[in-house]
Design goal:
This protein is an alpha+beta fold. The chain contains four helices and eight strands; from the N terminus they run βααβββαβαβββ. Strands 1, 2, 3, 4, 5, 6, 7 and 8 form an eight-stranded mixed sheet that branches. Helix 3 links the parallel strand 4 and strand 5. The protein is globular. It starts with a strand and ends with a strand.
Length: about 140
């Protein structure tokens, strides 16, 4: 497995491949909800490859000088259970520290909340609907 992070077009293409498979085809989310205005030049993506195939991904969105949001964390079904999601989160957290961010935010589906909590994220909002799914905002302090 190879882990990469960056904002070149190929990083975005690899990330979008995984997201299309997981969120649109597998989960049935609307394609125009999945691919939004944050998927643009300059957006940073973490991607894990098995050989030449992208198999897990996440997106990094700076909010301000102190905060960033992690979004679109996904792993292809055949690769789940190998801790690739945790590796994606680690890569994005490393990017946040490099950028001097202190707080990371995730809008977590309730079904994924336990996963993020094992990585140190804590609930910071009430439950709400996002794209028709029950979610809760989770935060983590990452400053050194």
């Amino acid at each position: 497995m190879k882990r990469v992070i960056g904002n070149q077009n190929w990083h975005r293409a690899a990330s979008c491949y995984v997201r299309m498979q997981v969120f649109v085809l597998e989960r049935g989310l609307a394609i125009d909800d999945e691919f939004d205005q944050a998927d643009r030049d300059g957006t940073t993506y973490a991607v894990i490859f098995a050989g030449d195939q992208p198999v897990a991904t996440g997106r990094y969105l700076p909010i301000d000088a102190e905060q960033a949001r992690l979004t679109r964390i996904a792993t292809l079904a055949a690769y789940r259970g190998q801790h690739l999601g945790a590796q994606v989160i680690q890569a994005l957290e490393d990017q946040a520290r490099q950028d001097g961010k202190q707080t990371l935010i995730i809008h977590s589906e309730l079904t994924a909340k336990g996963f993020y909590q094992t990585l140190g994220y804590r609930p910071s909002s009430a439950v709400y609907q996002e794209d028709g799914v029950d979610c809760q905002t989770l935060t983590k302090q990452v400053a050194n």
